[in-house]
Design goal:
The protein has no helices and 8 strands. By secondary structure, it is an all-beta fold. This is OBSCN protein.
C-alpha cells in the first residue's frame, strides 16, 4: 500500500507519469476463536490466527472494547493474536 504514488520517467526535456494504486489484500481469519471453559480463579487464553502478519487487533467483550490491564493481556506474534484473561469470574463468561 505504501508504494501507491505517482511515478515519473524523466528524460530531461520530457516526462511521462503514471499513478500506481496498490489494493490491499483483505485480512481473513485462518483460525477463528474457539469456545473455552475455565474454572473460577484460573486464567484462560483465547487465540485466533490471521491471514496477514502484524494486523492490528481489537479485542471486545460484548460491545465493550478491552484494554490491557491486570485482568487482560494481549499478545501478538506474526499472524497469531492472543487474549489472556486472568482470574476468571462468572461475569467473564
Amino acid at each position: 500500500k505504501s508504494d501507491s504514488d505517482t511515478y515519473t520517467c524523466d528524460i530531461g526535456d520530457a516526462q511521462s507519469r503514471a499513478k500506481l494504486v496498490v489494493k490491499e489484500i483483505p485480512v481473513l481469519f485462518k483460525r477463528e476463536l474457539r469456545n473455552e471453559e475455565a474454572k473460577e480463579g484460573k486464567q484462560v487464553k483465547l487465540t485466533c490466527e490471521l491471514s496477514k502478519p502484524d494486523t492490528p487487533v481489537k479485542w471486545m467483550k460484548g460491545d465493550a472494547v478491552l484494554y490491557a490491564s491486570e485482568k487482560y493481556e494481549f499478545k501478538q506474534r506474526g499472524t497469531v493474536a492472543e487474549l489472556i484473561i486472568r482470574d476468571v469470574k462468572s461475569i467473564d463468561a
